[in-house]
Every structure is written in C-alpha cells, then in structure tokens.
Amino acid sequence: MDYTIYLSTIPENQLLRIEEAKELYRRAFDNQLYYAVRDPDELVKLIKHAWQWDKNAMPYYYDLLLWHDVYDENGKKEDKMSFTEFMKKYRDQLVDNTGKPLVEPVVFKNPDMDIYLWDKFADLKYPKFAFQKGWRFSPCESDNNEKYLPCSDEQLEESIKYFNYALEGGYHCYEDLTARMLFQQGYHYKDKEFKKISKLTEYRKSLIPERLKLAIDYAEIMAEHSSIIGILRVTEAYLY
What we know:
Blueprint: H1 18-28, E1 29-30, E2 36-37, H2 40-51, H3 58-74, H4 83-90, H5 113-123, H6 127-136, H7 153-168, H8 174-182, H9 209-224, H10 228-239
Antiparallel strand pairs: 1-2
Helix pairs in contact: 1-2, 2-3, 5-6, 6-7, 7-8, 8-9, 9-10
C-alpha cells in the first residue's frame, strides 16, 4: 500500500469546496434508499475529483464504495443504475483535462485507508478533516445522571488545536471552540438535555486571560450572527 498523500492534479481554483462536494455527492448517488446512481454526469464529475486527490471529494467516494456493495448484494431495484453498471458504461469518461484516462488511486483499494488518510489530512490542516478530528478529542462521557464529566486539559488542548485548524480553513466552529477553551467539560451545557448551562464564572482552572479574551471575542462574533449562546456569553462578560 502506498501511504503517500499526493497533491491534487486539479488546479486550485477548480477544486471542490466542502459544501460543493457534499451537494455533488447528494445529486450523484443515493445512499439512503436505493443505493444507486442518481445522476451519471454528476457522478463522473465526483469521481474525477476523487481520483485526482481532491481532498473534499475523497470521503464521498469512499462512502460510495461502501454503499454500492449494499445495492449489489440486494439486487437491482426499481430499474436504478448500480455503481457497477455505471462503471461499465461511463468508465471511458473518467479522464483528466487533457483527455488522459484516470487511474483510481491505490488508497481506495483498502477500505481501512480512510481512517489513516483522514487523520493525516487533519494534521495537514485540511479544514473538513481538522474539524472531524477536533470532535474526536472532544469530551463525550457522561455519568448516570447524564451530566457531562470533566475531561483532561490535554484532551481539551488537542481539540482546541484542531478546531483552530478548521477555523483557519473557513469552518465557523466558534461555539465548539469557545466551550473547550472555557469549561472543563468542554461543553456550554452541564447535561445532555441542554437544560443546565455552564456559567462563565465556572471556567477551567487552567484558563489564562488571553484565552478568556479570545473566547469573548468569538462570542461577540457569534452574538452578531444571532447566536443565543454568543449573546449569553457576551452578556455574562459585561456582568462579571
């Protein structure tokens, strides 16, 4: 297996944005009902991007490889086109901008490679993957009363690092980021029912003034966009 992470051969201004890749996949393939091809032309476009190392397209191609097996196992339904049929009919259209036939990267041959790749993409600061990895380090444990338990500063700092990578890349993850900076549980709420909110005065013992100021700056941005949490935190900041 070649573990090299390659740069995309697609010009930067033609790479898919995060939401564009998501919508393209939604239009191209049905992974909820029929597990079949919706729009062959859109699927051609998606695969072209994925096979040329467009990082935002690659997760959806992996997803497609997973779900098309469900379709093939269950048999043909409602005269929908399976991925296998699609490849037989449209394989010759999978070419680069010069008309040269594309080759599926070897990483797609191993379904477990996506775990490795997503981890490395996050470390390279690709925003979608950094955001996902930030959640991986986020606290998720609760006690029998469904209250969030405190987590270590190390966990929170790792989560903050990757959320910052995501923020730099365009993800507006201010709410998640501020919660991890401010509170030992890493959440704005104390419970999973979202009924008991953590007060600003219940901040992490290790919180430094610079982080507190940054969190309030982010809260102001959130408040300007009508976030209830943002409005609350700014109000508390003035109050306390």
